[in-house]
Amino acid sequence: MWQLLQFPLCPFSRKVRLLLGEKGIAYEPVRESPWQRRDEFLDLNPTGQTPVMIDEERHVTLIDSTVICEFFEETVSKNALLNGSAVDRAEIRRLVVWFDNNFYSDITAPLLHERMIKRIVYRQPPDAKVLRDAMKAAVGHLDYIDYLLDHRTWLAGATMSLADITAAAQISVADYLGGIDWKSHELAKRWYIGMKSRPSFRQLLAERMEGITPPADYEKLDL
User: Fold this and answer.
1) Residue 37: Cβ within 10 Å count
2) Strands 2-6 and 60-63
3) Is the dihedral angle over the CA atoms 188, 194, 195, 201 positive or is it negative?
4) Are 142 and 99 in contact (CB under 8 A)?
5) Which tens digits make up the pLDDT trace of 24-67?
6) In the chain, N or C: fewer CB atoms in 10 Å?
7) Beta pairing class for 27-31 and 60-63
8) Cα 2 vs. chain centroid, distance in angstroms?
9) Residues ≥6 apart with Cβ < 8 Å to 163
10) CA distances for 47 relative to 44, 51, 140, 168, angstroms
11) How far is CA 194 from CA 117, 168, 176, 200, in A?
12) What is the arrangement of strands in the sheet containing 52-55, beginning at the earlier edge strand?
């Protein structure tokens, strides 16, 4: 069986886990705290980042969430999430990059640093200004999601894709950390409720990061 090295609030690991859930691929989640910089983990992935997937029997190691997702897209035909024409696939990949890079750097990363890393590693309080800036940036990103959904059924087109999974993974972590305000974003809220209602999301919503409690409506399906 595959092993997935990850931690509960890693958005990139969540992205992989959602794809594996949609495709019905069995795996064993293995807790890895990348901030500990374990030598054994760095030997697997010199960047020191999660997720990493390992199949010890076949001596296969997969690194980077997009690489992992595309590997399973190529090898497991069930529930294709990177499909359509070349133009369709290009748009899916564009949005994957957008949420993995822009949303992460603007919102998820500062929230993780202020509300998780500072607490667990440095025993320091969060910087209120950084939190405000991240939450303000989230409003702009939700505006963009509203725009996309005003023109499409799903973020990248007519069917759910890797773009939706990538966005939902990032948003779910930001939501856990209290960085999402759904007011005035009805299209984005309705889309996210649909995503978190899927069976692939159940285990993620049930997990908790030690010492960090999510908002009361984090698991609710009506927001």
Assistant:
1) 9
2) unpaired
3) positive
4) no
5) 999 999 999 999 999 999 999 999 999 999 999 999 999 999 99
6) N
7) unpaired
8) 19
9) 91, 92, 95, 96, 99, 154, 155, 156
10) 9, 11, 30, 24
11) 30, 10, 17, 12
12) 27-31, 2-6, 52-55, 60-63
Structure tokens at 48: 């020191």
Q: Measured between alpha carbons, how far is 96 from 161 in angstroms, rounded to an integer?
A: 10
In tens, the pLDDT along 144-194 reads 999 999 999 999 999 999 999 999 999 999 999 999 999 999 999 999 999
d(CA 209, CA 33): 11
Q: Residue 41's closest CA among 74, 10, 78?
A: 10
Q: Are 134 and 179 in contact (CB under 8 A)?
A: yes
Q: Which two tokens stand for residue 115?
A: 């509300």
Amino acid, res. 197: S
Q: How much of the chain, in percent, has pLDDT values that exceed 70?
A: 100
Given a contact cutoff of 8 angstroms between Cβ atoms, the answer to whether 119 and 212 are in contact is yes
67-76, long-range: CB < 8 A, 24+ apart: 68/16, 69/15, 69/16, 69/19, 69/162, 69/165, 72/19, 72/20, 72/23, 72/25, 73/19, 73/162, 76/23, 76/25
113 Cβ partners below 8 Å, 6+ apart?
130
Which two structure tokens, joined as six digits, stand for 14? 């969540």
203 within 8 A of 22, measured Cβ to Cβ: no
Task: Report the length, in residues, of the chain.
Answer: 223
